[in-house]
Amino acid sequence: MRASAVFVLLILAAAPASAQTLVYRVDQATAVIDGNHLVVTAKGAVRTGGWERPRLIVRKAPHASGDIEVAFMATPPRDPATVVQSLLPVSVSMKTHLPKSGVAAVRVVAETNTVTAEIIPKREKTASR
Fold first, then answer.
1. For residue 74, which of 55, 48, 98, 100 has the smallest C-alpha distance?
2. Which residue in 127, 106, 96, 86 sits closest to 28, CA to CA?
3. C-alpha separations of 73 from 21, 34, 50 in Å
4. DSSP label at 117?
5. In angstroms, rounded to a whole number, what is the distance separating the alpha carbons of residues 10 and 4?
6. Strand, coil or helix: what is 1?
7. Buried-most residue among 28, 76, 86, 109 (CB within 10 A)?
8. C-alpha Rg value of the chain to the nearest Å
9. How far apart are CA 72 and CA 58, in angstroms?
10. pTM here?
11. In this predicted model, what pLDDT tens digit does every residue of 83-107 receive, in sequence order?
12. What DSSP letter does each residue of 32-101 carry, written as one string?
């Protein structure tokens, strides 16, 4: 009897985590060139508590418009979980290789909206006098 209980627990523990889905909304996005990398950050909200592992995933690179499309994703809470029923903030940053020349912006896509961030070079700190 114990062996079968352990077997069931192992199967449950090995079950795949919930698939990532788009977060509810994106409120702010930035895209900055830092050396040989592009750093994209996004801030937004999820529908409830319990969301985990936010990330940005490149969906389409570059469109005819010259934009890179990035999905703002996170792992939702497991089904029977008891979670806070309120919009909660979520943020994430991604560092990737520089896009091809001609790419001017990054579009961050969420479930209910999209925010476009113009790619800007990182400004070097100037010495104060």
1. 55
2. 106
3. 5, 23, 14
4. E
5. 10
6. coil
7. 109
8. 19
9. 9
10. 0.78
11. 999 999 999 999 999 888 788 999 9
12. EEETTEEEEEEEEEESSS--EEEEEEEEES--TTSEEEEEEEEEPPPTT-----S-EEEEEEEEEEPPPT
CB 25 within 8 A of CB 111: yes
Alpha carbon distance 17, 128 (integer Å): 50
Q: What is the pLDDT of residue 7?
A: 38
**Is 118 or 81 the better-scoring residue by pLDDT?**
118
For tokens 């939702």, the residue is 76
The answer to whether 24 and 44 have CB atoms below 8 angstroms apart is: yes
Map residue 17 onto helix, strand or coil. coil
